[in-house]
Write a structure and sequence with these properties.
The complex is a heterodimer of chains A (304) and B (255). By secondary structure, chain A is an alpha/beta fold. Chain A is 34% helix and 28% strand. The radius of gyration of chain A is 24 Å and the shape is elongated. With 255 residues, chain B is an all-alpha fold. Chain B contains eleven helices and no strands. Chain B starts with a helix and ends with a helix. The chains are: A alpha/beta (304), B mainly alpha (255). The A-B interface holds A 11, 18, 44, 47, 50-54, 71-73, 75-76, 78-80, 82, 84-92, 96, 99-101, 103-106, 108, 132, 148 and B 3-4, 6-8, 10-11, 14-15, 18-19, 81-83, 85-92, 97, 248, 251-255.
């Protein structure tokens, strides 16, 4: 479990608050999506969780251990793939990287070797284990970074943009792996990414940060349901749309998009169309996806 | 703890040996530069009376220059690349991997200094007498160099400009520690300035034992050995304190 209490980080004499009183609970065995636009404070929060940055105030506990006061025990609780960094040595082979980081995590040589073999086999890298990582594709390098994060079998894994720059196949492999880790091994995974389809597919719960503050922290379904009241409807009609309606017309069919606060208002719209002699082809409720929710959250006042 | 240290040293050696050609080129440049400079300073000849002393001095410089290069350049590169952060997320205390890096740097510094010194000895027939009395000053010189290297690494934790500062200091050491001319030939004020720099006092103490036949007691009574001891202790203390301070600062300011 990850517990964050009133975590705050200020920088410089101007006391800019990069992270402002953020509190979170990530239950054991869940996949937690941690979202926000660039500069929202996600990476700063992750660095504080990983013990790479000292909070100005507040507390982080990983698996029950305080990162500041019980650093050694807390560090044993997690592995991480950090955003925008190599995470592994390019001049070493995949095998050498895993052996190094495993021993740095306090594992014995034989233990690391067994674990490294399992991980490299699982991630499809066993045949290339003795090749230098610098010669690998971006996807393979990211798999090695993930294997490094997992080498000590940590109960918590922090993944900062793990699918950034990966091709479709590599992204699929990483997504499958994330799901397996959480569902089958009970690993707690905190995931940040700008690929919201990945979050919607994998995460049990989602938190959104904006300007250093949390603006939402809800189970994914609940978060989507919260925005369902703003559902959009698409009405397809024959020919051109009547005046007063914004529509896209193609091949003799117009698609009118309407946004309503209450579903009952859709009947009024349909009635207005009927009154103007418009022939209705279809009426579809457009469900909001996480991208809609995210955009709404980061452009509106606090929602949580 | 020992396992972590062994892993760090093993990784450091593998990373360095991944590009052996770079080391060979460094060795060639170092040797050629030394012999070339001595040829110019000797006005067209290699002076047998100066070569052994200057070779000991430039050996000290090579040790310092290469150890610092391995330690600081790797640290800056790893901070940029992210492997430094990845290696920090362990149960080990932060000074332990740094100690491993320092040991790796010292191994490479010593190896380069030894091979680069051996080549001129063979090429120019330079003989350096070996005496037990030189052992203690040599050990202190080694600690002196490593303390300075650790100080640069401590600065590298927070300063992106450390590369320039490192070049400045190592250039000053090359100019003033006796690599070109023995310290005894310097004007007094310049000799005082030179002794503040790392390696100079160590080279002076070694020179006194090897080439002037002094005993350790003699080097002590000349004031060189006590000065070397104080210089080394002060440098070690300052580098240790600076590491603690800058590690804390890096954790507060990392962005």
């Amino acid at each position: 479990m990850i517990e964050i209490d009133a975590l705050t980080k200020t920088y410089g004499s101007s006391q800019v608050r990069a992270v402002d009183e953020v509190s979170l609970r990530v239950p054991a065995g869940s996949v937690f999506g941690f979202l926000g636009p660039n500069g929202a404070g996600k990476t700063t929060t992750i660095k504080m969780m990983a013990g790479l940055l000292t909070p100005t105030s507040g507390r982080v506990r990983l698996g029950g251990f305080d990162v500041a006061r019980q650093r050694s025990a807390a560090m044993a609780q997690f592995g991480a793939v950090l955003e925008g960094s190599r995470n592994v040595y390019w001049s070493l082979s995949a095998w050498q990287n895993l052996m190094y980081f495993g021993r740095l995590k306090g594992m014995r040589k034989a233990q690391v070797a067994d674990r490294a073999k399992d991980l490299l086999t699982g991630l499809g890298l066993w045949e290339r284990r003795n090749d230098k990582v610098g010669g690998f594709s971006r996807g393979m390098q990211q798999k090695v970074a993930i294997a490094v994060a997992l080498i000590a079998g940590p109960p918590i894994v922090l993944l900062d943009e793990p699918t950034l720059g990966l091709d479709v196949e590599a992204t699929r492999t990483v997504k499958r792996w994330i799901a397996e880790q959480a569902r089958e091994l009970g690993t707690t995974i905190l995931l940040t990414t700008h690929q919201l389809d990945v979050v919607q597919e994998l995460c049990d719960r989602v938190a959104v940060m904006r300007q250093g503050r949390l603006v939402a922290d809800l189970p994914t379904r609940e978060l989507l349901a919260t925005f369902r009241e703003r559902d959009r409807y698409e009405i397809r009609v024959e020919g051109a749309a009547p005046p007063g309606f914004e529509a896209v017309t193609a091949e003799g069919v117009s698609t009118i998009s309407v946004r309503v606060g209450d579903p009952i208002e859709v009947y009024d719209v349909v009635e207005r169309l009927r009154a103007q002699g418009v022939v209705l082809e279809s009426l579809t409720q457009v469900q909001p996806d996480l991208e809609d929710v995210f955009l709404a959250l980061v452009s509106e006042p606090s929602h949580a | 703890m020992l396992d972590v240290l062994r892993a760090e040293i093993g990784k450091g050696l593998r990373v360095q040996l991944a590009h052996p050609l770079g080391h060979v080129i460094t060795l060639l440049i170092s040797t050629m530069m030394y012999l070339g400079l001595q040829f110019v300073l000797g006005q067209g000849e290699l002076r047998e009376d100066l070569l052994p002393r200057t070779l000991v001095a430039i050996g000290g410089y090579w040790f310092l220059q290469y150890a610092a290069l391995v330690m600081v350049a790797d640290l800056i590169e790893e901070k940029r690349a992210g492997t430094f952060a990845q290696a920090q997320m362990t149960s080990a205390p932060p000074w332990l991997p740094m100690l491993g890096r320092l040991i790796t740097a010292s191994v490479f510094g010593l190896a380069v200094a030894a091979v680069a010194s051996l080549v001129p000895m063979l090429v120019a027939g330079i003989t350096i007498p070996l005496r037990w009395a030189a052992l203690l000053p040599a050990v202190l010189l080694g600690v002196n160099v490593l303390a300075f290297t650790f100080l640069l690494a401590a600065l590298a934790l927070v300063s992106p400009m450390i590369g320039a500062l490192q070049s400045l200091f190592t250039s000053l050491v090359l100019l003033l520690n006796g690599s070109f001319l023995p310290l005894a030939l310097y004007p007094d004020w310049l000799a005082v300035l030179a002794r503040v720099l790392p390696t100079t006092l160590g080279i002076e103490a070694i020179t006194q034992t090897l080439f002037e036949g002094r005993t350790l007691a003699g080097v002590w009574s000349s004031g060189t050995l006590p000065s070397l001891l104080l210089h080394t202790l002060a440098l070690t203390a300052v580098s240790g304190l600076l590491f603690v301070r800058n590690h804390r600062r890096a954790l507060q300011e990392s962005s």
